[in-house]
Every structure is written in structure tokens, then in C-alpha cells.
## 1
Amino acid sequence: MTSPVPLDPSVAPPGTREFRDAGGIPADRWHADQNGETLVPTHCCFCGVQCGMYLRVDRGGKVFGVEPRNHDINRMRLCPKGINAYQQVNHPDRLTAPLMRHNRDQPFREVGWDEALDFTVAEIRRIQTEYGMDAFGLLGGASLYTEKTYLVGKFARVALKTRHVDYNGRLCMVSAAGANKLAFGIDRAGNPFSDMLLTDCLLIAGSNVGECFPVMTQYVWGARDRGATLIIVDPRETAVARTADIHVALKPGTDSAFFNSVLHVVVAEGLTDEAYLAAHATGWDEVKRTVAGYPPARAAEICGVPEEQIVRVARVFAGAGKAMAWHARGVEHHSQGVENCLSIINLCVATGHIGRPGAGYGTLTGQGNGQGGREHGQKSDLLPGGRSMTNPEHRRQICEIWGIDESELPPAGTSMMEMVWQMQRHEIRGLIGICNNPFVSLPHYATVKDGYDTLEFHAQFDFFLSETAANAHVVFPVTVWAEDDGVMANAEARVVKHNKAQEPPAGVRTDTWVMCELARRLGAGDKFDFPDSRSVFEELRVASAGTVNDYSGITYERLEETGGIVWPCPSVDHPGTPRLFEDGRSYHPDGKIHMQVVEWHPPMDPYSEEFPFSLTTGRTVAHYLSGNQTRRLGALVEQTPRPWVEVHPAHGFRNGDPVRVVTRRGSEVFPALVTDAIRPDTVFIPYHWPVPTAANALTIDALDPRSKIPEYKVCAARIEAAEKVDDVPAPPTGPGRLAYPEAQVSRVDPLPPTSPQGRGTSERS
């Protein structure tokens, strides 16, 4: 009799381990059957799932294709973005020489590296001499390898000597990070993806899994196949919501009222796990008193959902033997984002669904390194290892590792959006941006453009000329992910190794090289003697040792052998920590989970007769973040050439009708995508495009007071008929180049794309 195949995908079926390549053998030992072709095992550059893939490399050393890989994470699956990602590497839009101009009225010209670096250093010194060290800022990105995010934080504080450093993960997961730290004392998901296959109830809030994390759908549907009840909380009936047992289509901006009410029912019906609460939690009495004020009748009125649906969710989740809750940006992108996350944590803790196989809580990261990108120092309030900028002992530890005096380490800085406001006020006069595109990704575009235009000097690192880079004084051409080694941490906090597949084009340098060279010219070269990513990683291991975010036991070799290790991993013989809280202890000094009181409040942009609708934004399956990468790839542009506005049939529009969306920030015209899969009082626009088709020209720059995340997911709006949809601009290109025509032809299609996320969306006439 043969042994049964285990359900946990992190465990290899008996007898098959030798046939699997879970990150396995170093890249140079993989060779394809085709003569002269090599397969390099690596991971996708896009979302926080971090699917394994092979890059196909020809005999000339150039990447020319991709193959899926039987990695534990994705098991041979890739989404449309992953399949097309390799096309970035040798794309004709790649920047291959530094671009420079002395003022924005001049066109860019290609220059040598010495001229661009010297000009940048001269401007840094001029601005800091005239206005102080904090007059220069640095903004990083959560799609960088973790080694580079470590360097961003160190470069800002040691080479630039400025307090002003932050990153675009501020627009992604910081509400979840804040909630996790408050409740658990650690900032990461508590369970691996594979635990979904063991649960009896899976609740997903504010996450369009089918489009934003397509390969993760295998875990969601795997849970369903094994009998789990699926609950989706989302204003839109997304592709995954259509398959759910319960779809809660609440009004945007009401999440914490809903989850407080669910917990109210749990308490009222005696479904709490009092033994777990007594042993492992603090703050429960205060939370219980607060949720008493959220009976289903009140929450139903706030959220626009039936009372009986609130009761049903409470009974199903609390009554399950094992239940899990996951959430993403739909819960976090709010002025009450931290509270929204805490309200879900409170529900999990009160029902005892924490720290067990199939029972727990987690956050789905949007960017490829959304988890690792905030762990080691590029966030304004954190130092490597998740250390606090305001903790004297943490500061002392890092100064010792970096070899600087404690008086030299600047204080904590401000958040990304706050830095833009400081640019407007002339408090920040110079800026370097790395791996970000705020002209598309930040809210209230007019404010962002004004802030950047006010800068006296702006340099940007990128491999394509983004909308933000096109506004800069200097653009440094840097490598894509396939041209360098490095690690990322996916949504499970699993650290995975990306392998270099080809040499970069002549004239292109790694982000690491550019930062180290700038540091050398600024007089801090002795602190930035890093010839490659491995040397940075070795210092990162030392800098994280003994912290909650401990990477010290992770090595490149172990990652190659195992396919990924989940931190904390304090020693080289430690297996990593895929599941937290199994011993009932949190990472607070008292070992308890600190439950937090949550009160719902309305969104920051008030509704009125003039603005009665909720505008919400999000992603679509073909594109990624600001679209600087995906809007250049032919198949993805053909699949989704332009943004649209989803509207309910009750408003009388037909597919393709020009619809003007108006908020207090401005107006734009989109083709209608008419679907009854959205609430009648809500409209949706995907945000991957620049003005004049930018969703973020309309969104509000209100921030969560704790996490400083913008309130992307809800603002007051109105809709009205228009005459013509706004044209989609082509992506910027370097001097003397035209937009890649094969990737841009479908932008002229005036109709919305057929959409997978709702019923009634295939009509195009």
C-alpha cells in the first residue's frame, strides 16, 4: 500500500524530493535540452507571491524566454505578468546611458557616468551646505532586492546624513505593519500559504486575489476543494468573490465597523475562546466593551449590508474548527487602515484562531519585496532588523555595526507623502528616487507634481524612463532584476533567492554600484565597500542578528538548497519559522497578544449631494503598480490597454460610454465598464496609468495618522456623461527614441477591456 500524498505543498511527496528543484541547485548547473540554451532558476519580479521561474538564456548570454518552475510557492504556475516579465530585460526602451540636464526646460542628453555622478554630488553638497543636511531626501522602493533596501537606509543616514528617507512601501503595507507590531510585536504574516489548505474557514478581506495574486488562487480554491467555507469581504464581486460561500459587498471605508459588529455577535452568542484569551491576550475587556456598541443593526446601516450577513459571518468564522483571515490593500488603504487591520486581528484572537496549522492571520503583500523591503532600514522610522529609530539601544547597536558615532545617526524622518508636502514648503530641496514612480502611484497628482517641480535638484534611478524620471535632472540607468543577484521576502516572509541570468547592457550599473559610488564621492566610501549583493547581504545578516527580523542564519547557499527560508532564522542550523505563535507567545516582552480598541470613523473625504459616490481604486491582472514596466509589454497592453470606470447598470450607461468621474481634486473621462458586480453607490478605476487617465489625479492625500498610508480606497465622487474618453499617453522614452510601437497600438481602442472580475462585462458594443 502506497503512502498518501500529503496536502501540505511545502512537503514533497515520498520519493519525489530528488525530482524537485525548490530553489535547488545553483544556476550554472541547469542546462536546457536545446543546444546552447541555459535555464536559470529565479523568481518573478512582480507581486508578493514570488513565483519560481526559469529564465531562458541563449548561447550569447541573453534572456529570451521564460519557463514555469515547480517551486513550492507556485508549482508550475505563472500569471500573465510573470509570463511576460522576461521581455523587460532586453526591451528597446531600456535606458543605457545616464541622462542629464541642468534645468527642466532643457531636453535630456546622454552623458558619461562621471559627469552625471559629479553633477549629482555637487548638487547634494550645494543644497546641504546652503539649507542643512535634512534639505536632501531619499525615496526607495519595495521592489528592490533586500540588500538594496538595506543600502538605501544606510546611504541616507551615513552618506547623505539626512533624516529624510522613506520608500514606496509606505503606499502598500504599512497599515498592516503597524497593526501587527501593536498586537503581536512582529511585522509579518503569521502563517504560510499552505495553511489555507488545512483550514475550515477562509476569510479574505480587501484583496482581489484572482487579479492581484493570481497564482495564490490555487490555495484559495484548494481550500474550497477540501471543504472550507470561503468568505470574501469586498465592495466588488471579484473573480474569487464569485466563487465564495459568502460575499460581503460592504461600502468602501466601513471595514472596522463590519468586523467590530462580527465580533459583537461572536461575544453575544458565546462563541469566544475565553481560555485562549485568558492565557494569551491583554486588552480583551476593553475590546469587548467597545464592540458592544456595534450591533448588527448599526453596522448594517454603516456598511450597507444585511444584518443577517453579519451574523452569518460571525457564526461561520467563530464556529469553524480552524479559521484563517487574510487581507490586503482594500483594508489597509484608509485613513483608518491600522484600525481596520486591528479589527480583524481582534476577531482572530477572540475566537482562538491563531498560531495553528490552518488557523491564523496574514497580510498579502502587493510588491515583490513588500515584506523584505520594510525590514532593514529604508522606512523612515526603522533601522535594520526592524529596530526603532527612537530606541537608544537600537541606535547604539546600528552605529556600532556601521562604525559611526551615535551623534552622527539622524533622527526618524517623515513619510513619503509628507516628504512631498515638505518639498512644496521648500523644506526638502533635493531628492534621489530609487525604484519608484510617484507621479502615478501617489495620490492627488497635482500636489505631487507641484512638490517635485519645487525641487532644486532631482535624480532618479530606473531602467525605463518613468513619468517621474522624465521630470528629473539626472536619471541613472540601472539593472533589471535578471541582471543582478539578491533576495526578496514574499508575503509569507519566506526569503527567496533571485539569480542573475545575464550581464547588463553596456552603460548600465547596479543600484548597489551607484549608491556606493555616490557614497565614495561624498566621502563615505569606507562605509560602502560592497562589490556585489552578497557582500551587502553578509553585513545585513550581522545587522539583523538578535532582532525580531533575524536573517543571521540565512545564507545564499541555504536559499539555493531549500527554495526559501522564513525568518526569523537565528542560526545556520535553524529551519526558519513558517508559522508564528505556535507556543501561544507573541513577540512582546510579556509574551501576550495586545488586543487594541478600534472605533470606526467615516472616511476623510465627506459625501455630499455634489459628491454622493465612493470612488475606489485597485489593480488589474495585466499590470503592476505604476505600470512603468507592464505598459511597455505588448501582450499585457493588448490585454488591458487602458483604464476604465466600473459602474453599476442602474446609472444608465452602456459599455464604452464616456463617463466623467469628478472628485474634489479634479475630473477625468473613462470608458464605462457596466457591471452589476459593483455596488450602485461605488465606482472603481484601476490606477496603473498617468495623467490624463490617472486614477490618482482624483484620489485624496489624506493619511492614516499612525501608518501614514494614503486613503486610496475611498473618496467622494460623482459621475456624469461626457463626449469623449481621455487619451492614454504612451510611456516616456529616452532622447531620440519613440514609444515601442508593438506595445502601444492597442491604446487607441476607446472601449474598456473585457474584464474577468464581474458578470456582464464581456459586451463591447
## 2
Amino acid sequence: MATATHLLTPEEANADLVPENVVVRFAGDSGDGMQLTGGQFTLSTALAGNDLATFPDFPAEIRAPQGTTFGVSAFQINFGSASIETAGDQPDVLVAMNPAALKVNVAALRDGGMIIADEGEFSARNLAKAGYDANPLEDGSLARWQLVKFNISQLTLDAVKPFGLGNKEALRCKNMWTLGLALWMFDRDRGPIVDWLKTKFAKAPTLAEANIAALNAGHAYGDTIEMGAAFRPHHIEAAPAEPGLYRTVTGAEALGLGLVAGAQLADLPMFFGGYPITPASALLHHLSRLKEYGITTFQAEDEIAAICAAIGASYAGSLGVTSSSGPGIALKTEAMGLAIMTELPLVIVNSQRGGPSTGLPTKTEQSDLYQAVYGRNGDAPLPVIAARSPADAFDCAIEAVRLAVRYMTPVMLLTDGYIANAAEPWKVPDMSGYAPFPVTHATEASVPRNETGKLEPFSRDDKLARPWIKPGTPGLLHRIGGIEKRPGTGDIDYSPGAHAEMTKTRQDKVLGIARDIPEQEVCLGRAGAKVAIVGWGSTFGPIHQAVKRLLAQGHDVAHVHVRHIWPLPANLGELLRSFGTVICPEMNTGQFKTLLRDQYLVDVQSLTKTSGQPFKIAEIEAAARTAHGGTLAPDATQLPEPESGRDEGHPSAAEVR
């Protein structure tokens, strides 16, 4: 990913620039390389100094039939000269590589936006696959938008002809041709992309040169063709930023780096046990490249083995970490109870996706909150933290490690498919600003004994945490397991009194974390505002932008975003009661709303979305406007699902793990 420094003088930082942003969506068949094209356009945008947010959107099928709507893959990027919090509500430019990509995505394009279409792919066969009766490039049905069409396929073949590639290999270069055109449109430097291609195809220099030729040809085509004022290069100024080292980072990358940083701050080796599942697999991939930081990664044979291996690592004195998505978290549930009963530190990452069951493997959702807070047999509390953006996953990972080792407890960290795959600029932090929390494993002298001289491995400190005893430590032989324990000694004890006391102790330990986390702040607006939008997780961006717009228009609105889902911040109830109306947008059917109502008896209104797509700014703004006028009704809080643009009755997605 991109690494860049963006230095500003005080005059530049304070300059009164007119903020500008553009939303571009690349869409094509799964084999057209749209994710790679979007990723490299993101790299060039970051190096240009723009703020940005991305949204990769790809199908669940391993390989859908080519040219069908089921196989359409898209990558959206919102970039500009001001703060960017979301990937954008509506694209300004849609690059459609075939009819299916056009059909699935054109409805999202803003009125007057630009369509760039590869007319070489609009054959009768491909039109039929996409469900078109007539060619939309010729029948006037796209009159709402500016249509630019040319034969990208043929232009690519012409550009790479000197390299002697077969027709199939040559057409694989057309995503680079398209990227070259996009770089020309937005005044981007081709140099970093050329360097990347040479590195990627270092063992196949002919392919590298062919792709570079396609990239240059697309750029030259834009530079030489006369298409009128609508089709011209457009320069967007860099966004103001503090001096420092910046890079683009996805949620999975930031999460991996945060876990490594947390282990370093705790002065512990880290063991990661995982099993591949969409969209959580990327974390295993990133951590496997960080062995020099004392990281051991283990791809287990199944989800249960992965978490049990991580628990074993924690028992042995390392920091155990495991990761999955909703279906895999369900399989790990019994082992989570074991970690809670044995009171061992463990970080469990849940990259949420649409459910239940296999559900929507590649689409985003926030529907595992009940599972995170309540989803285990018995009274089995554990802390739950939610990251709000890709960059925020770094700090959330450190916080999860801190709580796990300080309180001797499993901690669940919630991200989702959007956070895991999306990218944004990240100022690389100065780690000297993070307070270390080094772990000291117990010694015989540090573990108390009772009046009979019996060792008490389940004695408690001021946080109600028990000592962390490494196996083999002289003098500290003790029992440990999933059967209920006698308070203090940890011996097996089925008595009613022992179970009641241990249950309450485990509960009080987790609830006591509320004293060790920051009080809840208002992100935008003021406490006591007429309307508060309360969110958690990846709804941060659209909520923040909606509230920012409403405040600029003079509305009395506030944004509250909760990181610590369980236990909740100590002052949250008082804060919520200060607002006139509280609305909670969630990509589920209202789970956090229910939790807030249960804990504080506040009439939180639900705004839900379960389409597998993130909220739009306009959706949240509309709900807040209704509430601001004092007419908020229960039925006004449920928005209709947006049209997907796909044919009805398409086959169910293949399992992706």
C-alpha cells in the first residue's frame, strides 16, 4: 500500500480552500481486475495528498458465469481536498467494463454523472447475459447521464500487440488501460504504478511491459482524444493534514499492526490461531508476514482448533489471539466459555458479515452484536469493543490487548466486512505516546496461600483479576479447567455457594472495566441537543458527515459514537437522557438500540439497514431531519432497502471461507 509524507506549511494548512470531492466507481466482471484497479488508483490518490475512503464490493460466488450480473465486482473511492469519512453516497463517475456492470451499478450514479463504457463488450451475447433487450449505449436510456463510450478491449489489444501475448492474456491488461485513463482524468502520476508493475511481474518482464504499455496507452488516449468539455483532466488539491508519515491502510492491516503493537506494549510474544473465512482471512495473511515481531501464526484445521490453540498459548504465557466471522465465531463459542471459566487473556476478532448461516459472505453487516455480548451458554460475560473505521482498528486492537491482559479475560473486538476491506489514509503514530502495560507472570512469592497453606491461584487483585501462572513455574502447581471452581483455590467445587460466588466475581470483574475506560464524549454537537445520532462500528462515517451537514445548516444535532460496547461507558446513560430524541442507525434490525433501552430505559429510536451495503449520508440525514421537526414516528425510522440492480431470483451465493 502507499506510504507517503504530506508536509504542510502553516499558511497551507490555514488556506481557505474550497473543499471538493469526487466519487468514482470501477465496475466489471470478477475477472476484470476491478479490485486491483481500485487499489492502485487509491495508491496514486494517497500519494497526491487527497483524503480518501474506499468501498470494495465483490460477489460471494467463487467464479460466477462471465458477463452475468451475479459476477459483477466494483470498487468505489471517494477522494477530495477536505475531510472524507465515507466512500460516498452516489458516484460521479462510473467506469463500466461490460453490460452487467452497467446494469448493476448505473442506478447508483448521480443525475448528470459520467458513464465510461467499454463498448467493445456490449455484444449481443453479453447484453443478453445482463438481461438487456436493447443496447443501452444506443437506445437513449442513459440520457440522464453523460455517456462516454469507446472500445477499451480493442484499444488494449492494439497497445499490447508488440509483446506477442495471446488474446486472453492481452485482454487481462485492459484494467491497466482503464487505470491509465483514470490517472489522466484526475491528474495522477503513473510512476508509482509503473514501479509496482515491475515489482509484481519481476519474474515475467514481458507481462510487466505489456501492462505498462496498456497503462500508458490509456493515459495517452485521454490526452489526445477530443471529447468536449465534459471529458477533460481534473485536478483536486491535496487535503490539509498535519505533518507526518502517512500511508493508506485497510482495516485488516491496521488490526494486524495494532495487535502486534499491543503485544509489544504488553511485552509478550503473540500466537494467532485462525481458520480461513471471508472477510476475516486477511488478518491471518497480514500477521503471517510479521514473524520478526515475535508473532506465531497457525492456520488450524477448523475454527474450534484455532481458538483452542490460542487458549493453549495464553495458558502457556503468550498472548493468544483468534479471528473469524459470524459463522466461525458461533463454532468458537464453547471454547470462549472455557477461556472465561479459566480466566485467561484472549483477543477474539469478529469481522462481521451478513447472516444468518452462510448469509452474505462478502457483504457487510453489524448483526453479531447480540452474539458478542450475550452469545454463550451460562452467565459468561466478556468485554466487547467495536472499531469505527479502518485506521481506528489499530487503537482498538491495542485496547483489546490491554483489557485482556489487565483483567485476565477474553475480549471480543468487532469489525465488519466494510472496515476490513476498505482503506483510508492513516498517520503512522509515534509509539512513544502509548503507555506500556507490561505483564509480569506470577511467581511462588506473588501468589497467596490461605490459612491452611493451600495455594490460591484464583485469588484476586484490585481489578478482580487472578494471577497469570505459567505452567512449570516452581511451587505453583494447580488445577485449571472448565468445571466450576472453589473460590481462591480453583479446586473443583459444585456447591451452590461456590458457583454463585464465582459467577458474581466474573461478572463484577467485567463490569468493573467501566471504571477503566474513558467516559463517553460527544463527537459533534453538544450534550443536551434536540436530536442525537448514536452509533457504533462502521456507521461512524455516514453519521459524522450527516451531523456535520445538519450543524452547518443550524440544526441542533449531536453525534455520539460508542467504542466500548460492553461494559458501556459509566456516563453514557446520563448523556443519552440529556437529548430530546435519540436515533441509533445500525446495519442490523436494532440490536444496539435494544441494549441501550435495556440498560438505561431511554426511548432510543432505531434506524436499520440490512441490505449488505453501508449507510448513505442522505439516509441518516433524512431521519434526523424528521426527528428535528418533532414528527419522528416508529414507521419513519425504517428505510426501504435500496434497489440492488440485480435480477430477481438469482441463485444463492456459494460458500466462501
## 3
Amino acid sequence: MTKETENSPDLKSGKGSDKDYSKYFDFSDAKLLSEEDGKTTYRIKGRNVQINSAPNYRDEKKRGKEEIQVHYENAVTDELKNLGIGKKYLIYTYGCQMNEHDTEVMRGLFEDMGYVSTDDRMEADVILFNTCAVRENAEDKVFGELGHMKVLKQQRPELILGVCGCMSQEASVVNRIMQKHAHVDIIFGTHNIHRLPYLLQDAHFGKEMVIEVWSKEGDIIENLPKKRNEGLRAWVNIMYGCDKFCTYCIVPYTRGKERSRMPEDVIAEVRDLARQGFKEITLLGQNVNAYGKDFVDRSYRFGDLMDDIHKVDIPRIRFTTSHPRDFDDRLIEVLAKGGNMMEHIHLPVQSGSTEILKRMSRKYSRELYLELTNRIRKAIPNAVLTTDIIVGFPGETEEQFEETMTLMREAQITSAYTYIYSPREGTPAFDMADDVPLEQKQKRLARLNALIGELSLAYHQGLIGQTFEVLVEGESKNNANVLSGRSRSNKLIHFEGPKDWIGKFIQVRVTAAQTWYVKAEAISEPALASQAV
């Protein structure tokens, strides 16, 4: 596997990105030590920093026509198989399901090298922070943890400390770590996770901080090992990246352009998980509806993939996340077949105002979103829709916020992830006037959440007396005598029953409604799924 080496950033001028990051961090004391084999080494704050490749916003915006290669060779070579013998690793994961899945891959790589997992940072020989860049508070948490790690690193100098994930794709973040957190040993991004074994090898035998962040997205690497923590539910990545460039979102820069896995590789992975006894699969992508648009040798889209997976003998198939613009009739047709196709559809709208959607560059209107939800409900009468909402986007008026409130009722949304707008440097919205006062944002968020609670409770009250299928996931967090599970439409259900029901499908009758879940009584163990909540 080869790649083009990215240019190293000019630490003093901020060159190599569209922003001048020197206004944030002073690298006047950085000394250039060497430039050879595409690698640049600086001396910063008493430590050598080796830059194999660095993040670059200009490159991250590019959407070239280069063909994405698919590679099937093993990421852990024979010479690296024993690198971790007698050593332990710990990964802290922040952010979305994609990050969780990336962590599963890294766990697999660690264990292929002989490492053993631990939850005790005092025992760990390697600690990685797999980070999220979507919201500012996620970054604040990571930097807070890195501050705590400095003391641990002083106590145990042999500890290898790494930062990876979406934050690492931001030039400002990498510069800050180089300047303020010299105790970090390795920094890598979202495109070169398969390079982890080699970076660990460098960290074990070298003393430099090593930075290898590819701004040009990598090729698709198959056959990567995965260590899943449970044998009940599994995530399967079907594509990488996003080309939507919503004005508030950093993901197209941190995850790169859209590139789809070959359908035969996805289906083979799903079949293998079915053979292993997994009960539920969730297909992952930043925008799963765009799956297959990048294929040049075949006409095969997300609906076709779902139709093929529909034929695999696995009880439940879910997917996330959808973009309304790409949600086509072929997909609706396949979902309407039922069976192992779940009736829950997460369909982020972000705002109920056409004007705000235009400023967000969502490329659909309020009317088109509602027309889509109507088409879905016509084909799938028992469909349950959930969504994402951002309040306080630049320029949002009270009237435009009210449009979001009314859309929730019109679209019959039963649950939503809600957020206050958070400016992300490097996105177009960062240059917009953030003119909605924080107090006003908080009030709008509270009103929105109250409405969602009202809609959720009303929906749950309508379920009382009905019978549904539940996949039992475990004990309730608040009561060890109560089991907890999910319906086909992803509704949380609590009921009493023996622990040996965990991992099984149980028929229950709803007895009481709460705002965010329902209570039920078990009536039998089903052989197959029935009605959806």
C-alpha cells in the first residue's frame, strides 16, 4: 500500500491551510531539524516532532476524480504480530457510531498484535483518544483529558499516548497538541487507521512525537480485524466520507469524499455476522443514501444493497444516517417489504425553515421534507421517524424557529437529537455572524425538547395494550430486576424477566407509558418478528 506524502505545514506562517493558525499558537521557537524521505522533523518545546503528513484544509475540500483502490492485504504483518505481547491498551471513544466502529477496528488491530484490553489507565501501555470534531464541547473534553494525561506520562514515561479520529484532521488541533501537549506520542486521522501497527512500532522504538494525518482520503482497506464488545448487535460500515458540505458541518473535511465499499464485501461481512449469531446489524455511513453513487462500473445504489441484505438470514437490519435529499423511492420500496427491514427511519431535518435550510446548504426545502415523510408513511404505514435538529443557527429568527416546532408535529416525529448551534472552524458557517444570543438558543432548545417529550409521551400512550417484539439487550440501568430491550422501531421497553432472556426475542404487552420509554409485561418468546412499535 503506497500513498502520496502530504506537504508539512509551515509552523510560523500557517501555510498549508486556508487559515493562518499562527494567530493562535506561537511557533517562533520551532527549529527545523531535517527534511528527508518526505518526512519533516522539528524541535518544539524540547521534543522532536516528526511529521509524516499533516492535515490541510485546502486538500480536505478537494473532491478529485482519482479512482479509489480497494486493498485486501493484512494490516498486521508477521513482523508486527508479537509487538504487543505482554502489553495492554485502552481506547477512549467520543462521538458518533462511525467513531465507535473505528474503535472496533483499532481493537482488532491491537489484539492481532498481541495486546490485551484494559479499562485501567494505570495498567495501560498504550492509551488512544478516538475523537469527535462535530461540537466544541467534545474537543474541550479531549483536551481536558490530555491535560490529566501529562501527570500519568510523567509517572510512566514508557506509556504511549495517542490522539486519532476527526479532531486529528483539523490543522488547528494538531498545532495545539504540538505546542501545548508535547507528552502525546502519535497523532493520526480517519483515513489511515490501518497504519496504526506501524505508528505503534515507531512509537515503541522512537522518541519523537509522530504525526501522520492524511488530508487526501485513503483507499478502502478490507480485511481489517474488528473486536466487537458484544455478540448481539454489530455495526457494518458500507461507505466513507460525505460530499454534502452542509455549511455547519466539519465532517466532509475530516472524513473525506464519499467512497463506497464493494457490495460483495459488505454482504460477505453481513453473512459472516449472521453465521456468528448476531441478531441485529446497523449499516453505517455519513450519508448511507449516497451509497453507490461513486461506482463507475455498475448501477447499484443503497436500495439495491438493502434488497440483497434483506435476503440474508439475520433478524434485524438498520441503517444510519440518512440524508433526505438522497432518500429515493427504490429504498422506500425495499423497506416496505418488512421482514428484517426495520420500520424505524432516522431522517435528520436540522431545521423546519426553508430559509435556514438554504443557509445550511441542505439542498431541500421544508415542503420537500414533508413530501418525503408522506411518501414513506404511504408505503410503510407503521414507520416511526426520528430526526436531528439544530437550534440557533446564524440568522434564525423566532418565526423560523416556530417553523421547526410545527414541522415536528406535521412530520409526526416521535424522537429527536437536539443541539445548540456550535461554530466549527473551517466550515462556511464559521464566517457567518453567530447572532442568536446563547440565552435565546437555550430557551429555544428547552422549548423544542419539551415539545419532543410531549410528542413522545403521546405516541407511547397510544401503544398501551398492544403487543410487540423486543430484542432483550440487558438489565435496566436503574433496576437490576428489570430487563431492557428495543422494539423493531427502536423504542426502549422495560419489563421483568429472567436474565437468561438477554439476547433473545421476547413478545411483550405494553402496560404503561413514560416519556422516553414504555413499561411492559412479557407474554411469550416469539420465533419471528411481529408488529412494529
## 4
Amino acid sequence: MTSTGIRLHAPAPGWSIPADVVVVGSGVAGLTAALRCEAAGLTTVVVTKARLDDGSTRWAQGGIAAALGDGDTPGQHLDDTLVAGAGLCDEDAVRLLVTEGPDAVRRLIGTGARFDTDDAGSIQLTREGGHHRRRIAHAGGDATGAEISRALVGAVRARGLRTIENALVLDLLTDAEGRTAGVTLHVMGEGQHDGVGAVHAPAVVLATGGMGQVFSATTNPPVSTGDGVALALRAGAEVSDLEFVQFHPTVLFLGPDAEGQQPLVSEAVRGEGAHLVDADGTRFMLGQHELAELAPRDIVAKGITRRMQELGAAHMYLDGRHFGAEMWEHRFPTILAACRAHGIDPVTEPIPVAPAAHYASGGVRTDERGRTTVPGLYACGEVACTGVHGANRLASNSLLEGLVYAERLAADIAAEHTENGPHTRVPAPVPHHGTPAHPLLAPEDRLAVQRIMTEGAGVLRSAASLERAARRLAELHARASDTLDGEGKTAEPGVDTWEATNLLDVARVLVAAAALREETRGCHWREDHADRDDPHWRRHLVVTLRADRSLAVRTTESADFPPTR
């Protein structure tokens, strides 16, 4: 796979620094990869969009899943993951995850992460949706992500890794042979350098997290604008499974017009015995699945949405009043505080909840070593599509996937460096004078993209809703493209316009894939194709961006991904 030559419209880099590897992102995946690369003797630079601890990892409430408990096995964890993935998991990728997962968690503890333990000092484990065993390790009750982030950020600072904070990554640099040669980025005024610059390196790790901000309401932080997927598309990489966006079933309902990041009510609350009820107190998930409220997330989100439609209601309720004040205060202090900040007291009243965009099961396609289809470009964490999640992520597998696959790609980068020797250092990027620039959207178009996606490609989808979304997104894209191609003009380069453009890029791919997949599977719910269709659709959709900025879509031959090389 070679670069399309498409770059965001941006000033030329005014400064550059060399490295062996640049890691873009500072969540569990990015910082784990950076620490492992640095430990292997590689000069490592971490680039992050805000502060080191501002990514999605810190917002993870529930925990990290691994077969750590008595009687649990990787095989049982594999089975639960495959069921949740609805026939689209790459089984070899899942086996790697569950087999290497327990030791990866132990190494995380060795890095300094402190999980909740019982009186005997053993890690406390809980259940979440789709798990038949108690295998979710948590910290601070419901602050697992914050604790993992604290430990990893502390380790990065203790090791003295070079970091560039407040920096938005723009595009991939490539050398004369089409291999990765680093990235361009823009530092937003508070970092070590200001303006557009570059990090020159033979290996780039994308760990940029998700793209939840493509929808109006999401659990994702404001930085989750799909930057990594958009960069990979422009670089010629393959992306897959973007139609499978997991909508978390229980997000605190703040009103029908609420936009942006919404407070999450962790699945662990249901894992500890809270019930989903309607306004009359009826537990509507009973009889819909053997696990009732603890069914996989796609089933619970559909159950809530279906009940909302039946009753003409804007939300349902999560009832944990039977927990009592002490349990709420010690097991779920973060959630308790968030609810009370919005005038809801879970100790005395049910919590109003509704589904909201949460996690992208798809992303930049990688192999078992984190390698994408572009030589030297790696991806891990939510930005990547390893095949682990299939059509629906099993609860709390995300932090584990970030750990395991970050370690695997770091080992591959170190091996490549050892094999190729010093000549891999500081590659010379090819100048892209005269290559096609990517038109930029005006900042106000970001809201337009989000509303188009929420209306047409949310929890409920149909051919008609997706056609409307595709047409409106195409109009935004065409207007920007025609202005650039015809008049040589585009919106003013800047963080707002670059983010809006990245959101449009990933939205176009998501809608194209969702329109083609004429079935209901996992978290992709087609009202007009209500059944799962294994003979035709037990395969993946793989998308690339052509040099003319149009999309090329193909299907794999099976649920297993072909090699990236």
C-alpha cells in the first residue's frame, strides 16, 4: 500500500526533531507502547493532543478484563469475547488477547497501577455484560482508567521520555520508498514548540483513541475526533469495521438536546445488581436475554431503545437504590458525584439513562503485531482494528487490548530496529510540493456532521436514513472540494478546521460501510434488515481513500483478516 499523497491543507513544518519511534496518543495503549520502546533502547517521542492524562483511558470506569480469578481460564474469556463479537472476531487475535492478557495486567501492576483488593490482598473482580465470570479488575471503585493513567504517566515522567503535549497530529510523512518517515503536527500554543512541525522517525504508532465526537452525544472526551483513522486513510492505509460503533446502554440522560461528552454510568453498576426499569418500574430486559441487564452491550442498547420507542419515552432508568448509601459512596464514588452534580441522587432515586456513542470496534486495520498496511505505520488501542472486537466489543476488553497489542507492536519495532541497524534512524521524508491537499471544513460544519450522523447512523439505521446521511455528508465534502479545486481556496487551517475535516473523513467511511452491510449484527442495527446474515455478511468491509478523495470498499473472504503485508 502506498501513500495517496493527500495531506491536510497546512503550513509547511517550521521545525523538526529526530527519533526512532513516535507514539501519537497517551492512553493505556500509547504510553505502554512508548515505555516498552524506550525500555528496548529506542529514542521515543510521545505526541499527545492535550495533556498526557487527558485521553479516553482516564474516563474508563468499569475496569480491565482478564482471566485472573479462581476457576477462570483464557478459554472461557475467549468464548465470551467470540459470542459478543457476533461472528466477526478474528479468533487468533482474540486468543492472543486472552492468553497474554493476565501477564500483561501483572506487568501493569509492576509499573505501579494499584487495583482494588480484598482483605487477603487478592484483586477484587466483578462482572460486566457478556461475561460469565467475575473477571473485571477495578481501581478506586469506578476510577480504573484514572488509576491506570496515573501509573503510566508517572512511569513515563520517571523515565524522562520526551513528550510533546497539546499537539494535534496532521499527516504521515513517507520516504522515497513509501515507508513511514514520521509525522507532521501542530502544537497549540502551550507545548515546547508552537506552530506546525515534524517528528522524523522510521516507526509511527497511532494510539489516538476513538471517534465518538462524530456523534452529537458521546461518552468520549472532546479530543476524540478520529484523527488517527483520518491520518491513516490519507496515508493510504486500510480501515475496517467502522460501521460497528458501540453505543453504551447507560449514559446519564441530560435532556434531548444535550451535545458533547455525556457522563457514563458504568456497566459495573449493573454488574453489581442494578436493574434497568421503565417509568413504571418494570424490568424490561427480563426475558430478552439469559443475562438480562448483563447481556452484551448491543443487546442492552437495543432493548432500551426498543422500550423507549414502545412508550414514546426519551430515556429509561437504572435503579440501584437497593445498594444503599455506603455501597454507592465506596464502590461508585465517581458516578455518584457525577449524578449528584446533575441533580440526581442514585441513593434515593433511579438514574435516567439512554444510549450514547461510546466505542469504535473498527479502525485502522492491523495484524497481530500492530502493523498496518503502510510499512512502518503501527496502530493500537481504540484507533486500531485488530479483529479482537468483531461486531461488538465485550465489556472491559478495551484496556486489555491496548495493553497486549501495545506490547506486541513495541516488540516488533524493537526487532525491526535491531535487524535494520542505524540506517533506520532519521529517515528523509519526501517533500510533497504540488500534491493534492485535502480541503478543510469550516468549524461550524463540525456540528452539521455530528447531527447528520446522530440522525442517520445512530443506534437505529435503515437504507433511507443512511442514504440521507451519505447525501448530506457528500454535499459538505463536495462544497469544500469544489472550492479548493476550482478556486484554490479552503477554510483557514487550524485546529477547529482540521478536526472538522477528520470527523467528515471518518463519517463518510462509517456511513458507506453501514449502508453496504444489509443485516443486523452486533452493534450495527438495520431496521430494514433485522436478521443476521452469515452466508453473505460474515466478513469484513475494508475501506481505503483514493487519490481523488473517493472511497474504495471491498469485502474480505471470511471473518479472518488477510495479512497486512
